[in-house]
Amino acid sequence: MSTISTVSSNYIIEPTSVETENDPLTLNGEDFMTLMLTQIQNQNPLEPSDNMDYITQTAQFSALEQMESMNNSINTMYAFGLMGKEVTIDNGDGTTVTGIVDTVTMSGGSNYLEIDGVQYNSTLVVSAGEPSTSTTEGDKTL
Prior knowledge:
Layout lengths: L28 H13 L9 H31 L4 E5 L5 E5 L2 E5 L2 E6 L2 E4 L3 E5 L13
Antiparallel strand pairs: 1-2, 1-6, 3-4, 4-5
C-alpha cells in the first residue's frame, strides 16, 4: 500500500483561462478526505500508519487551500485594479476587444470586467494600460 507523502501544485499569480472547478485533476477538500479515509480503511493492521503522517498530510492540504485562497484574492485585486483602465480582451476566436473597464463584478468564483455593457472574464485580458486620451491641453479644465 502506498501513501501520499506530499501534495504539490504550481501556482500562477496572474489569471489564467483554465477553470479548475470541474477539473478532474484538481483535488478539493472532499477529495482529500475521501483519499485519507480510504487510506485508513485499507492500511495493513499489522503495520498501521503513523498518526504524524496524517497530521502532516492535513497540514499540507491546509497550506494548499490557503495558497489557493491567496491566489483567488490576488486575482480579484488584479481585476479590481483594472477599473478605469483600457484593456484588450482576447475573445479566443482570433478577435480582440479594446475598451475601458466600466465595472468589475464577481460571480461563481470568477471576476468579470464590463466594457461598453458587455461582461468579459478577467482571465481573457491580454494587455492593460492607462486610457488613451484624445483631448488636447486646451480642452482640459483644471
